[in-house]
Amino acid sequence: MIGDDAEADVGGAMAAGLAGVLVKSGKYRPGHEMRLRAPPTLLAENLKAAVDLLLREAE
Prior knowledge:
Layout: E1 2-3, H1 6-15, E2 21-23, E3 42-44, H2 47-58
Parallel strand pairs: 1-2, 2-3
């Protein structure tokens, strides 16, 4: 799951057993990742950067 809401998007995905990728755009504000029980699977500057990171990992 890629999202800009640390708790709802990323935290929810991780609680369901999915990878959670937090993007630093949209609703994101510095420090939001600290609200999570565990760090996000990935932290990216924006959606494009998140997709690029995921595709690189898949290779």
